[in-house]
């Protein structure tokens, strides 16, 4: 079986409001899968359900065929489900280096060490160097995170996720708010992700979506509205209709011309 | 990701640098030794400062590093003091064994009550910690068969300190007591220093800054909160144990709200999150107390209050750099 992450009839209700409505989604090994949909379609909620930030009202989440619905966030991360956040979630009091070194230590099972200083293991620092250079963060690695420019923070957001060596990577609008000049850096980073990592990308930028994704799922009102090859979704008249009147309509129409 | 392997690891050398001993850190330890050597007449005062400093360092571990607010840290201080006093009166009068008992007792209490501070907001934690200390105060009051009730436990007589360097009997002038407290404080600082530079210590700062992200890199936030709360309780228990052993009694007052408030004040005066704030705060607080009390004894609280307000509004950094007060700029 080649499905890595799968949801079965996943439902999330808040006080009677159904935000996720029976979503069954399959993410294959090495997937380049995009999740799109109008604002308020429940895309981030779905990521929160997949990662355990929110508990599902009903339905299951399975990783490699094993039910992980009841597992807390950190336990899912250890099994390889890692995410980035639409709004940066960083450690303001640490440096980029310390943030990444901590994530790498956690991934290598060294985060509970309490006697030797952080980063005394070559395996940790080698990986830190690789990530810092790869994400163009080496020159700011000793500055407090709180003092970095937004574009750098966005890169750090992704670098920390990759430090966790994901098997499944959920990217929640990685280019959100990134100025035009810095977007390419984010795009290149995403394009260069290891091929065996299964990626689910939430994005409003249709250029990015259709350049990156092989499969697209369209979420509307919490339910799967359409799903298929990127090429087919791009010309699907129903999908265009959903986006009609939305700012993204033009993007869908021209994004894959 | 195009990357060339650097010949020397920038990450390794930078991380190494950040854990290195600073000159001012060594100065703190030197000052502790010099105070004992040069001020033999002030031994009782030095003993008291060392104990308050240890208590404040313990609070710094949970507040400064892990971001756990507490208005009831005296629970562990008092518990350690009573444990040490009871052990000395009932079992044996060896100070080091008694200190170990105090540390262990407070650690157990810390582990048990840590479960109460995992959920909720800062306000929840302020009230829960306040409540726990209050409960212990009342228990110590009511269980007077064991604790002596409102009279406390008096007449705690300690045997000599048995160390590899010889036997040291406690003296009235507090020379041995102050050396004992200073050495324990120094050892606690050394352990705490290892702790805060370790992956565990950095992970505490991470969850202080952002719990959601800390769990999203695979760290169990709850486990870490339980661990640091237990360790801090053990440190506070050591401080309480030292007080009972060197003063010869344990009283209800040790659980009192003003103890919890005062240690918070001491830590805030010295600064949180860099480990030595508790030590510096304890010295400054004691000096302030002595200077103001000598000058105008009845208005100590007024001047302390004013100092606090100025400290918080002006900021610690600006307060200790008066030459920057009239400079323009950010």
N-to-C span of chain A? 34 Å
* Greatest interface (CB-CB under 8 A), with counts per chain: A-B, 55 and 40 residues
| Tally of separate helices of chain B | 15
Q: Strand order, biggest sheet of chain B?
A: 1-2
Number of strands of chain A: 11
Low-confidence stretches of chain B: 1-6
- Average pLDDT, all residues of chain A: 90
Strand order of the largest sheet of chain A: 7-8-9-4-10-11
Which bin fits the share of residues in helices of chain B? 55-70%
Structural class of chain B: mainly alpha
How would you describe this protein?
The complex is a heterodimer of chains A (257) and B (330). Chain A has 257 residues and is α/β, with parallel strands linked by helices. Chain A has two domains: 1-80 and 166-257, P-loop containing nucleotide triphosphate hydrolases (Rossmann fold); 91-165, no CATH class. Helix content of chain A is 37%, strand content 24%. Chain A has ten helices and eleven strands. In chain A, strands 7-8-9-4-10-11 form a six-stranded mixed β-sheet, sandwiched between helices. In chain A, strands 1, 2, 3, 5 and 6 form a five-stranded antiparallel β-sheet that branches. In chain A, β8, α6 (180-191) and β9 (198-202) form a beta-alpha-beta unit. In chain A, α3 (96-107) crosses α4 (122-134), α3 (96-107) packs parallel to α5 (150-163) and α9 (237-243) runs antiparallel to α10. The longest helix of chain A is centred in the middle third of the chain and has 14 residues, at 150-163. The radius of gyration of chain A is 19 Å and the shape is globular. The two termini of chain A are 34 Å apart. The model of chain A is unreliable at 252-257 (pLDDT under 50). With 330 residues, chain B is mostly helical. Chain B has one domain. Chain B has 15 helices and two strands. Chain B has helices at 10-18, 23-38, 43-65, 74-90, 95-114, 122-142, 144-147, 175-197, 199-209, 211-216, 221-247, 257-270, 277-295, 300-314, 316-319; strands at residues 161-163, 166-168. In chain B, strands 1-2 form a two-stranded antiparallel ribbon. In chain B, α3 (43-65) crosses α12, α4 (74-90) packs across α11 (221-247) and α9 packs across α11. The longest helix of chain B is centred in the last third of the chain and has 27 residues, at 221-247. The radius of gyration of chain B is 21 Å and the shape is globular. The model of chain B is unreliable at 1-6 (pLDDT under 50). At the A-B interface, α2, α3 and α4 of A face α1, α8, α9 and α10 of B.
């Amino acid at each position: 079986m080649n499905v890595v992450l799968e949801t079965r009839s996943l439902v999330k209700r808040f006080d009677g409001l159904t935000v996720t409505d029976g979503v069954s989604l399959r993410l294959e090994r090495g997937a380049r899968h995009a999740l799109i949909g109008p604002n308020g379609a429940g895309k981030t909620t779905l990521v929160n359900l997949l990662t355990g930030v929110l508990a599902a009202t009903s339905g299951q989440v399975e990783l490699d065929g094993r039910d992980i619905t009841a597992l807390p966030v950190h336990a899912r991360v250890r099994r390889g489900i890692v995410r980035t956040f639409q709004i940066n979630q960083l450690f303001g009091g640490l440096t980029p280096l310390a943030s990444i070194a901590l994530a790498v230590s956690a991934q290598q099972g060294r985060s509970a060490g309490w006697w030797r200083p952080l980063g005394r293991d070559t395996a940790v620092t080698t990986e830190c160097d690789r990530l810092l250079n790869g994400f163009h963060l080496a020159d700011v690695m000793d500055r407090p995170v709180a003092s970095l420019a937004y574009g750098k923070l966005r890169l750090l957001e992704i670098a920390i996720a990759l430090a966790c060596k994901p098997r499944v990577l959920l990217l929640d609008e990685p280019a959100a708010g990134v100025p035009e000049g810095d977007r390419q850096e984010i795009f290149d980073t995403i394009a260069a992700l290891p091929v065996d990592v299964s990626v689910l990308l939430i994005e409003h930028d249709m250029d990015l979506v259709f350049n990156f994704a092989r499969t697209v799922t369209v979420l509307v009102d919490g339910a799967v509205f359409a799903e298929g090859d990127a090429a087919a979704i791009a010309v699907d008249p129903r999908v265009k209709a959903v986006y009609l009147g939305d700012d993204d309509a033009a993007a869908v129409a021209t994004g894959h011309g | 990701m195009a990357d060339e392997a650097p010949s020397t690891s920038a990450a390794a050398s930078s991380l190494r640098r950040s854990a290195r001993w600073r000159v001012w850190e060594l100065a703190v330890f030197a000052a502790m030794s010099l105070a004992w050597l040069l001020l033999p007449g002030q031994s009782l005062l030095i003993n008291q400062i060392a104990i308050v400093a240890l208590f404040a360092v313990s609070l710094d571990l949970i507040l400064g590093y892990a971001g756990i607010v507490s208005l009831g840290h005296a629970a562990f201080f008092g518990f350690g003091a009573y444990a040490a006093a009871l052990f000395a009166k009932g079992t044996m009068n060896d100070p080091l064994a008694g200190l170990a008992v105090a540390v262990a007792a407070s650690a157990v209490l810390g582990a048990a009550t840590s479960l109460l501070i995992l959920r909720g907001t800062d306000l929840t934690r302020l009230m829960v910690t306040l409540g726990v200390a209050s409960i212990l105060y009342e228990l110590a009051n009511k269980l007077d068969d064991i604790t002596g009730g409102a009279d406390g436990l008096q007449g705690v007589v300690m045997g000599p300190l048995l160390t590899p360097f010889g036997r040291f009997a406690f003296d009235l002038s507090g020379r041995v007591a102050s050396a004992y407290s200073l050495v324990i404080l120094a050892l606690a600082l050394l352990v705490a220093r290892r702790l805060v530079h370790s992956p565990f210590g950095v992970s505490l700062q991470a969850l202080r800054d952002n719990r959601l992200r800390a769990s999203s890199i695979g760290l169990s936030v709850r486990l870490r909160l339980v661990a640091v709360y237990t360790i801090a309780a053990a440190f506070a228990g050591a401080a309480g144990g030292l007080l009972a052993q060197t003063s010869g009694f344990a009283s209800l007052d040790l659980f009192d709200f003003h103890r919890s408030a005062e240690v918070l004040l001491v830590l805030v005066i010295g600064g949180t999150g860099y480990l030595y704030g508790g030590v510096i705060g304890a010295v400054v607080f004691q000096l302030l107390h002595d200077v103001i009390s000598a000058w105008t004894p009845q208005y100590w609280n007024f001047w302390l209050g004013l100092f606090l307000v100025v400290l918080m509004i002006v900021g610690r950094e600006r307060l200790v750099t008066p030459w920057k007060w009239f400079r323009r700029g950010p």
